## 1
Amino acid sequence: DARVTQTPRHKVTEMGQEVTMRCQPILGHNTVFWYRQTMMQGLELLAYFRNRAPLDDSGMPKDRFSAEMPDATLATLKIQPSEPRDSAVYFCASGSSGDYYNEQFFGPGTRLTVL
Amino acid sequence: AQSVSQHNHHVILSEAASLELGCNYSYGGTVNLFWYVQYPGQHLQLLLKYFSGDPLVKGIKGFEAEFIKSKFSFNLRKPSVQWSDTAEYFCAVNARGSSASKIIFGSGTRLSIRP
């Protein structure tokens, strides 16, 4: 049963600390998406990649957030320094650009709390 | 630019009531349409999708949606809801065939079912 995995599932940290979230897309998928979900803003697209290249990161605060794909099996989202307003659930999703229908499969999310 | 509107932010129903959640999109071309469901504390899961063919799409758990092209709508329905349908429901759209295109999500509708 192929799934997107994310680690950690929960993270509590103090303001100013660096946070790194990891995502393993479904094997064979070549597109990866990072979303942030909060009660106030709902689901926001932060960044997405195709074949490990960033295609759009306009939704991401550039001064503190960075997203990378070191290899095809790993995507990372880093926040440095973290702030309380970054508290949210961060979801990773993957898909296949060879799939005409562009369906996305979501991971379980990382619940981040910044104190 | 594509956009998705879900006008009902919070819907409260009693068990066995019928459900219809509205979804309208704006895009001039051919689209793929999705409904995702997020149960409390969980990640988004695909409920159903429309790509082509019969505009009445049946999904899991007794849900269905009807694509009405002339109205740019893709409303979600269920004839008789259960307490376990309590969740947040997201309508989403993307442009047909564009590789690695973003899926644009609506703001979500929270469904609460009274036992």
## 2
Amino acid sequence: EPEVTQTPSHQVTQMGQEVILRCVPISNHLYFYWYRQILGQKVEFLVSFYNNEISEKSEIFDDQFSVERPDGSNFTLKIRSTKLEDSAMYFCASRPDRTTLNEQYFGPGTRLTVT
Amino acid sequence: AQSVTQPDIHITVSEGASLELRCNYSYGATPYLFWYVQSPGQGLQLLLKYFSGDTLVQGIKGFEAEFKRSQSSFNLRKPSVHWSDAAEYFCAVGAHNYGQNFVFGPGTRLSVLP
């Protein structure tokens, strides 16, 4: 069964460094998402992406964050200058298309630790 | 804006016992509702979803959920819990915009006693 994959599974970085989290959505999906889950807290929506542009974003998704689909398969989340509070599990998700109702398929997550 | 509450942070049940996990939502229109399960160190797996129609929906692993509009609830049930059901369970509401981005509840951690 096709699945969303994410790399790396765990990333450790120093405060102020840039990180790029990578996701490969399911191949025929068109809608992509990033969510984050701070340890012990709920999963929070960051951004959705469709047709090579941001569709919606939350207030968490400030200028430090950016997303990109650099090629036909990858979907990346970049944090320009990491802060301690960016430490969290980051989940990528994808959905088949824009017009029908269907669930999002989640990847296994990348645990980001900022020291 | 939509919101989701899961009143129970942690529930412990014995294996073979029945289970009900509560979920209440706040949304201005008919909600799109989901239950996801997260095993330790794993991603989020969809258990079941409700968009419209029959208010009792069946999911994987023997789970079911009932949508009750009058109570703004979407409680998850299982008649007989297995040890492998120990995990974190998240209820989510999907927005009606094109993005259908999710708002998740805080989660309920389920422990299963042998």
